[in-house]
Specification:
The structure holds 2 protein chains of 2 kinds. Chain A contains 5 helices and 13 strands. By secondary structure, chain A is α/β, with parallel strands linked by helices. A 10-stranded mixed sheet of chain A has the order 4-3-2-1-5-8-10-11-12-13. In chain A, strand 1, helix 2 and strand 2 form a beta-alpha-beta unit. The radius of gyration of chain A is 17 Å and the shape is globular. The two termini of chain A are 13 Å apart. In chain B, a hairpin with a 2-residue loop joins strand 6 and strand 7. The N and C termini of chain B lie far apart (50 Å). Chain B has 6 helices and 11 strands. In chain B, strands 1, 2, 3, 4, 8, 9, 10 and 11 form an 8-stranded mixed sheet that branches. A 3-stranded antiparallel sheet of chain B has the order 5-7-6. By secondary structure, chain B is of the alpha/beta class. The chains are: A alpha/beta, B alpha/beta. At the A-B interface, strand 2, strand 3, strand 4, helix 3 and helix 4 of A face helix 5 and helix 6 of B.
């Protein structure tokens, strides 16, 4: 499977969690791709933490507007019904629990639902941006990421080693291999991809997996 | 009452070394670029800045950084600036990073007379270190203190002579809160109109918060990430239906 195929599979699976009327915040990377896979007939409003509710597609070449960007600083467009607000109101939306779903990437996730995605000690600190507010405030947090690092190292760990973005904030992890749910007992393997065995998932996961057979096959 | 200054240079002339300055904008969107250029030209040093980002190399606050004007900075994301990295590593610039929503709320609180507040963002992370924490309803919260400044440099689309401001699209971002949180707020605008020409229902920042108004001489409005789709494409990124 190529990287692109993995990314698309994860995005398509995450898109299945969308519901009509949801207000959703998508992080940079794989989560952004989720916008391309909103099920037909469903109205989902995308929020961008720089103060935009109702983010539309990228502009047609030549119509870019420097005053109209998303939180990834990319040029975007409005949809009919877009609303703008200040950053303070935007984070009132986020922190106040008004966002149904936040989908974001991760460097590490652990059994307790701890998330690390902003800082690697010894490397240049770029800043956390809005990630800490998002995971603290969104009603549901899905981590959409590749199951392991490029080098094949586990990213799903018994305990995060990197500085945390949030403590006990992740609800679900979606990768190209599996869907895992964070529960008080630990990580429950909910679904596996059709081309993957439970053993494959175990090998690629450093955290302990709770497996209750039969495990559902992921629709990809 | 006359709040209108004839040039950005005059509007920033009394900003002194060691003062705290807030600058609006998210990335390069909605930054007071004319005021930044005027500040760089003024040669003032040792400023303590508060802004979500730090421009990029060669644009926005990146110009202030290159001019060696910034002694310390409070922001939430500074990943687009190589020079900043070097200055922080060499200990020449004191950098404080905080969650973006916390930054926004600290400024809002500063302008609203709220000295501190509890937020869940960053609870259980290094952001909470050294700060008072408290549990409310089974969830942990951190006590964060308000931010204020000597000057706020904001960018709006339109102002009337009384300083009532209207913003345009996502260039609003941090500007409205910053306009409330400084002793002197300087608004850089694209259009200046007479009182009464802005529908009172459309005013976002009421004029009481704005002390100086400058019509920007030149707006570069550089785009940081130009993402487009071909005119014929089917399912572009970001589609919501």
């Amino acid at each position: 499977m190529t990287d692109q195929e993995k990314r698309l599979r994860i995005a398509r699976r995450a898109a299945q969690e969308l519901r009509d009327g949801f207000y959703v915040n998508l992080g940079i990377g794989i989560p952004t791709l989720v916008a391309d896979h909103v099920p037909a007939g469903m109205e989902v409003i995308l929020q961008s933490e720089n103060g935009m509710l109702g983010v539309g597609p990228y502009p047609v070449e030549g119509t870019e507007d420097p005053d109209l960007i998303n939180a990834g600083k990319e040029t975007v467009t409005e949809i009919p019904g877009t609303a703008y607000c200040s950053s303070a109101d935007s984070f009132a939306i986020i922190r106040g629990g008004h966002i149904n779903l936040s989908i974001l990437g991760a460097m590490e996730v652990d059994e307790k639902g701890n998330l690390a995605n902003w800082m690697v000690p010894g490397k240049v600190v770029k800043g956390m941006g809005g990630a800490m507010d998002l995971v603290a405030g969104a009603r549901r947090v899905i981590v959409a990421m590749e199951h392991t690092t490029r080098k094949g190292e586990a990213k799903i760990l018994p305990r995060c080693t990197l500085p945390l973005t949030g403590c006990g904030v992740v609800d679900t992890i979606m990768t190209e291999m599996a869907v895992l749910e964070v529960t008080p007992e630990g990580l429950v393997l909910r679904e596996i991809a059709p081309d993957i065995t439970v053993e494959d998932v175990r090998k690629a996961t450093a955290a302990k997996l709770i497996v209750r057979e039969p495990v559902k096959t992921m629709t990809v | 009452m006359n709040k209108v200054f004839q040039s950005a240079r005059e509007a920033v002339a009394d900003i002194r070394p060691g003062q705290k300055v807030m600058l609006g904008g998210f990335g390069l969107c909605g930054i007071p670029e004319n005021l930044i250029r005027a500040l760089v030209a003024s040669g003032v040093k040792g400023l303590h800045t508060i802004s979500n980002n730090m421009g990029i190399d060669g644009a926005g606050m990146g110009l202030m950084l290159e001019a060696g004007m910034i002694a310390s900075h409070v922001g939430s994301y500074v990943g687009e600036n190589k020079l900043l990295e070097t200055l922080v590593i060499e200990g020449k610039l004191d950098l404080t990073l905080m969650p973006q929503g916390t930054l926004a709320e600290c400024i809002r609180a500063g302008g609203a007379g709220i000295p501190a507040f509890f937020t869940p963002a960053g609870a259980g992370t290094i952001v909470a270190e050294g700060k008072e924490t408290r549990e409310f309803g089974g969830k942990m919260y951190i006590l964060e203190r308000a931010l204020t400044a000597d000057f706020a440099l904001v960018k709006a689309w339109k102002a009337d002579r009384l300083g009532n401001l209207v913003y345009r699209k996502s260039s609003r971002n941090f500007n409205p809160m910053m306009a409330t949180a400084a002793k002197i707020t300087i608004a850089e605008v694209e259009h200046l109109v007479e009182p009464g020409e802005i529908d009172p229902d459309h005013v976002v920042t009421p004029g009481i918060f704005v002390h100086r108004i400058v019509v920007g001489e030149y707006f570069e409005k550089r785009i940081e990430r130009r993402t487009v789709r071909p005119a014929s494409s089917g399912a572009p990124a970001g589609v919501t239906k």
